[in-house]
Amino acid sequence: MIKCGSFLIALLLCPTLYLCSAGDTLSVTCDGNSQQTYFKVNTKYYFIWHTNVSWFNAIHICRRLGGDLALIESASEMQSISNYLISQGYGNTWLWTSGNDLVQNRKFLSVTSGMPLPYTEWSGGQPDNAGGNEHCVHLWLRNNSFRMNDWICSSPAQVLCQSQNHSRCIDDYN
Ligand SMILES: [Ca+2]
What Pfam families does the entry give (predicted)? Predict the structure, then answer.
């Protein structure tokens, strides 16, 4: 398979872009920061930030490295991520995602899309807004699958970032 790492390489190696298929990793470099490698799971590319940080810090880390906090959009995506995390030994890891109900309690939006979460897979009894202070969504392993939980946004967790969907919006300057 030919991996098109840049537009120039694509032009040189791929007479038509249809001959190129996406690889299993994606390298992104932003604004002089070190290159970040994303891995492919199902249809999206992700990376995990392995330092525990607040949800607010997590947003900026993903953006700084060319991504966004993960937005899980379907049961298949949730299951694929869960399988991957388990296979890679992340069973004790909590990971921030883009979901939050900071604007309105119990109305969960994605800071990545600005839209209501299209899919949720809460672990048992969640979201419970324990202590009235849980407004950010992370993943944790419960009953052999990674599921969602609302948690305190300032608490420290690792971060699941996804690559940005540059085709989501269209710039039209006409
Ligand atoms: Ca909770």
Answer: Lectin_C
What is the amino acid identity at position 137?
Answer: V
Q: Which residues contact 145 (CB under 8 A, 6 or more apart)?
A: 79, 82
Residue 72 has pLDDT above 50, yes or no: yes
For residue 18, what is the DSSP state? Answer: G
Nearest CA to 133 out of 148, 147, 113, 154 is that of 154
Nearest C-alpha neighbor of 149 from the set 135, 139, 159:
139
Distance of CA 39 to the CA centre of its chain: 11
| Helices within the chain (DSSP H only) | 7-13, 55-64, 75-87
pLDDT class of 87 with cuts at 50, 70, 90 = very high
pTM of the full structure? 0.84
Ligand 1 center to residue 136 CA distance, Å?
9
In the chain the domains, ranked by start, together with CATH numbers, are: 24-163 (3.10.100.10)
Distance from Cα 165 to the centre of ligand 1, integer Å: 29
Distance 161 CA to ligand 1 centre (A): 21
Rounded distance from Cα 114 to ligand 1 centre (Å) = 22
Instruction: Say if residues 102 and 59 touch (Cβ distance below 8 Å).
Output: no
